[in-house]
Amino acid sequence: MKQTESGIVLVQVLVIVAFASAMALTLMTVQDQATSFTERSADRIQAQALLRGAEASVVSAFRQDGEAGSDVDHYGEAWYLASQSPITTSRGSLSVTIRDEQSLFNLNNLADGNLAARAMLGRIVAASGEDSGLEVRVAAALALHGPVNDLQDLAALGFPETDIAILKDFSCALPEPTPVNLNTASNSLIAALFDNPLAAGRLMALRSRETYISRENMSKTGLIAPAGTALTSLFISVDVSVSWGSAQVHSLSLLERRGSGARVEVRVIRRDTGI
User: Fold this and answer.
1) Can you give the pLDDT at residue 201?
2) Predicted confidence band of residue 260 (pLDDT cuts 50, 70, 90)
3) How far apart are CA 155 and CA 163, in angstroms?
4) Among 54, 102, 162, 175, which has the minimal tally of Cβ within 10 Å of its Cβ?
5) What is the mean pLDDT of residues 250-269?
């Protein structure tokens, strides 16, 4: 064989070896990727199962509370105690945060031009030390455009983020008009609702002493609940975060409870998820 031909053969052999090596590397990479994909898929499935299970446990507890026929809802009940501060294992973590949405003032109470609701919001805004004209602008916007699904929707109505951040401290947006639950409202909100420091102080002392407020213990102390307030709730939110292996999932759900006795139903009316 001539030297030139020998060189050509050598080059061909090297090309074949290089090609075979590349194919083997590709197959190994594909196998690794397939294994990694399978593991990631399994992690995500497990994370989603934990998330749905946590939400379902809250739904069940909130429904059972309704079936029991209690005339109060407060943060000492089982539906709230289903909250979990982060639980950590070798594979991941789970946290569950529950909030009574009726612990806040519902901005959609303003959508039908309700003057009492507007006055209530005015007292709340004034008590917070913020812009005293905010309630006028919010009431006008909702009267014109109708209810909002979320406070963040106010941005589309021309409200700056600073106003929305202020409102988030003491208000929410629910699908129908709702009273504020005196059992779960913050002390500062109660003070604003009563517009009477002495009465507000007596109510807060009663709640602290008795764990919750009922019609009976309010009557005994001579307290009268302000208009636009109640002692029970129909709407709560459930915020679940799960980290499992390579997967991280999050869900914020709004639950609504309807009916009484054996006919109580709790359903998820809104769910926002993130991965």
Assistant:
1) 94
2) confident
3) 9
4) 162
5) 94
d(CA 111, CA 145): 8
Mean pLDDT calculated for residue range 152-167: 95
Quote the CATH superfamily of domain 38-101+233-274. GSPII I/J protein-like (3.30.1300.30)
Query: Where are the CATH 3.30.1300.30 domain residues in the chain?
Result: 38-101+233-274
Q: For the chain, what is the mean pLDDT?
A: 86
Quote the pLDDT of residue 89: 86
pTM of the model: 0.82
d(CA 148, CA 174) in angstroms, rounded, equals: 8
